[in-house]
Amino acid sequence: MAVKKEEPKSRGVFEKITGSGIWWIRYFDSEGKKHREKVGRKSDAIALYQQRKSEIRAGAKLPANLRRKGETLSVVIERALDWYGSHRPKSLQAAEIHLNAIKKDLGDVVATELTPGQVDHWISSHEQWSPGTMNRYKATLGRALQLAVVSGHLQRNVARLVTSRHEDNQRLRWLTDKEEESLVKTIKKNCAAQLPAFIIALHTGMRQGEQFGLTWGEIDFERRKIFLGKTKNGYNREVPMNKTCFQALKELEAKKSLQGEEQNEWVFQATRYKTRLKNPRQWFETVVRDAKVADFTWHDLRHTFISRLVMKGVHLRTVMELAGHKSITMTTRYSHLAPEHNQSAIEVLDAG
């Protein structure tokens, strides 16, 4: 009696139901995920298995019906926030505000299926935002997606395909002496503990993120300098203190000494919690309203600092350095505030 020769087994090829004649393949992709495909004849299954293995080795995409859905945008965002925490801690607060708002509405979208149209529609749905605010949200999402591209979790950054909104960067709003007097009076009445923060902003021109990310280790009272590491423009700079700024910081230092262990490394402390003050918006908007100062934001304190320097005749190159502008082009926006300087310059052409 002849013995039936058993067919040799092929790696990754199997019959789900023995004797059915319908063969399947089983393999793992480059990320370790298991896949199964129903084929038919054994010879076809063997050929397809070899093809799939070759595609994986070559880094080719799997067919659309075999691709796993992949991670959601929420996962991409959480990974990006971890990156901000370790690489750009001073930008973490703004990134959290932007990315958490995006995650709330778009977090369940599979990251690989996110389209430029979805991003643009989400941004446009916030009609109350200024063009600048819309662009900041787009930029932060773009950073998160680009980090995913660099790490190999995504193949493209769709935020790059979204057209930025046109910003009117010509708005220059600064305080008059009368408005400053009204604000100081209101702060002293309603929230006196915040007065040093207001004064320091007005006398240094620091950006909000720079100021409220300050630690005591960055304050050099002996040299009268404030050290800013990794500013918006990507480089370190030193901010000199005038007498008014110096006294305001000394006042905060004295308060810190009195409170002892209640304080931490941050220069600007939250009033209710043992942490830093991240955003002055809540108390400052109330002060502006009560002081009856129209159309004024915290960032306008920076405009006031720069404008006053120009109006006092400080050279634009010096103003550029004090403001931390990356180029003189940004500083020249304020040049019209010194008309007497232009007048004296043209008068050199007069005869005799």
First-last Cα distance: 130 Å
Structural class: mainly alpha
CATH class designation of the largest domain: Mainly Alpha
- Spatial order of the strands in the main sheet? 1-2-3
Largest sheet: 3 strands, antiparallel
- CATH homologous group name of the largest domain: Intergrase catalytic core
What is the gyration radius calculated from CA atoms?
30 Å
What number of domains? Answer: 3
Q: Any idea what the shape is?
A: elongated
Please outline the helices and strands.
Layout: E1 13-15, E2 23-28, E3 34-40, H1 42-58, H2 73-87, H3 92-106, H4 116-124, H5 131-150, H6 177-190, H7 195-204, H8 208-211, E4 219-220, E5 225-228, E6 237-240, H9 243-259, H10 281-290, H11 299-311, H12 316-323, H13 328-331, H14 339-346
Antiparallel strand pairs: 1-2, 2-3, 4-5, 5-6
Structural summary, described in words:
The chain has helices at 42-58, 73-87, 92-106, 116-124, 131-150, 177-190, 195-204, 208-211, 243-259, 281-290, 299-311, 316-323, 328-331, 339-346; strands at residues 13-15, 23-28, 34-40, 219-220, 225-228, 237-240. The protein is mainly α. The chain folds into three domains: 13-58; 73-161, DNA polymerase, domain 1; 177-345, Intergrase catalytic core (hpI Integrase, Chain A), CATH 1.10.443. The longest helix is centred in the middle third of the chain and has 20 residues, at 131-150. The chain is elongated. The termini are far apart. 24% of the residues are buried. The model is unreliable at 64-68 (pLDDT under 50).
